[in-house]
Amino acid sequence: MDIILLGPPGAGKGTQAQRLVDRRGMKQLSTGDMLRAAVKAGTPVGLKAKAVMEAGELVSDEIVSALIGDELDALAPGQGAIFDGYPRTAPQAESLDAILGERGRTLAHVIELDVDEDALVERIVGRYTCATCGKGYHDTFEQPKVAGTCDKCGGHEFKRRPDDNEQTVRTRMAEYRAKTAPILPIYDVRGIVARVDGMADIDVVTGAIEAVLAD
Ligand code: AP5
Ligand code: MG
Ligand code: ZN
Question: What is the pLDDT of residue 7?
């Protein structure tokens, strides 16, 4: 089963995708994570994307759609994909249809995380991840059980994203409103959009998503 998690920066796409991976063995396909890996590795894609991402703007449709096709081809037979942060524009939504169609796949659900943008800045500036395994945390909302030690891998190093400052977050939100929110009607007419309250506790949001997937 392939699904899209849609919502503005800080809505909880990555947090919920990680949980679905752990619970259902699905594969998280986050174009943001792929681009950050490319930046870190200094690949040609990374060199193009770095400044754009630090400004909070969108990387070109061609670059991100190329990343997605390769990742889908690497899935295990029968493994479902969670699209996290993709598609983000109408051309990307079109590309995704083509990419899935070529592989005989269809979208089962588009889950829109419904959130209050003002609260998201706090989520984002408090966010960090394990430098070893990538597990996500938050200064207030999701701390490791033992301070300074990752719950998942026992690592002791953590990192923060360069685009997680208030000014860049505001640009990312404006990009979401202008370019990403307008793609929802494409999926609405197919009857596959489910809206989930993204302001609830993390566990409650996971339960609501599970209920949609169980339908
Ligand atoms: P990307 O990495 O996709 O970032 P984003 O969309 O801005 O979303 P975030 O990762 O910031 O938020 P999230 O929804 O995953 O929230 P999280 O679960 O971490 O993209 C980054 C950049 O890459 C873009 O700006 C663009 O430049 C480029 N890019 C990527 N994809 C692209 C594409 N397709 N096209 C073009 N450019 C692209 O949660 C946030 C925090 O809140 C965490 O600390 C978490 O613990 C906490 N939290 C989560 N849920 C809750 C809850 N229910 N209650 C309390 N706290 C919560
Ligand atoms: Mg994310
Ligand atoms: Zn870890």
Answer: 97
